[in-house]
Amino acid sequence: xxxxxxxxxxxxxxxxxxxxxxxxxxxxxxxxxxxxxxxxxxxxxxxxxxxxxxxxxxxxxxxxxxxxxxxxxxxxxxxxxxxxxxxxxxxxxxxxxxxxxxxxxxxxxxxxxxxxxxxxxxxxxxxxxxxxxxxxxxxxxxxxxxxxxxxxxxxxxxxxxxxxxxxx
Length: 168
Prior knowledge:
Layout: H1 3-13, H2 33-43, H3 52-58, H4 67-81, H5 84-89, H6 91-100, H7 107-113, H8 119-133, H9 138-141, H10 143-161
Helix pairs in contact: 1-8, 6-10, 8-10
């Protein structure tokens, strides 16, 4: 998949959203130092464009974002990862892959953070993993992590497509 095609897929799957209210930004309950710091940092950026500076701020803090915050930032984050700036920095795509292929003890948290994404949006994340799997640098750098993230996302997508069990 070409980056241009992936950008079109992202734009189509994710409607534009405003940053969630301050209280709805963090994943963890109040008292989490990282979440409080992140809330303050995001509040200082409210109303401003989501740019490379913000994505770099978030890349190590993705586990502190709520489902609503993930839904807001995901299209910007994926799109940023396809820019020449991100190709140079490389950290943002790497950390996204690690967040999308969690260890077993963190899977429930990631599922919670992904609870507001529909199947089409999950498919965008999978397309991004496929893009990385075919990328000259990323495919050599950490193919196992890309596969792990893809497998996790595939499982989420399958669970969203499965009809609920019937009550008999």
